[in-house]
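question for whoever is on the cluster today: can someone run the full assembly for these? two chains, 223 residues total. i dont have access anymore since they changed the login thing
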Amino acid sequence: MVNILLFGPIAEKIGHRTLEYGYRPALKLHDLLLKVTEDYPQISQEINCIAVNQCVTKNMGHELTDGDEVALMSRFSGG
Amino acid sequence: MTPIHPAVRLENDDFLVDHELSALRAVSLSIGGIATFVGYARDRSREHHVTHLIFEAYESMALTTLQQLRDEALIKFGVLEVRIIHRLGHIASGQQIVFIGVAAQHRAPALEACAWLIDTLKQQVPIWKKEVTAEGVEWVTSHP
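^ ran it for u. tokens below:
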């Protein structure tokens, strides 16, 4: 299982703060993102930053591991 | 005696700037100056009257990132101490949102580190702000 964390405007658009997607060997971040945005197209323009296990990554070829925590985040606005 | 809180915090409660300054000063007698930035909730935004703001965060990552920024600032600017607080939850207009305090031997590195920290915080720390006005609520997606 891959756990997806959602915050702020993305969580509000989907109506959930977490999602779970099934894990399969060789699952890449790109595959997961494609699946999530197919299921929830309303957030595709909102995703500005992705973190896997709290580490920001732009590598869509990153191979996920069972139990990974993937955060899909919109543009930050703290401060 | 005022308890010394951790140097980097995310918290719902308001903070006391005097306590943070005391904590900074307690670190070293070599401190020659302290630069601070305190962010407040404005009551107006894009021609609307803002009643309050709501902040939420990816808390574990936000805290880790803030701690990394503190560590980086200590080395990058050669300053003596850094304290960073960001509040979460409901913050009424006029209330404090964020505190950054940098203690250094001289003013230039203190001021430079303080400016770098607030700029970098806005870009790198996963915190989101929602504005609540009489017209409705809206997530803020820019950080001027």
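summary bc i know u wont read the tokens: Chain A touches chain B at residues 5, 7-9, 12, 49, 51, 54, 71, 73-79 (CB under 8 Å). Helices of chain A lie at 8-14, 29-39.
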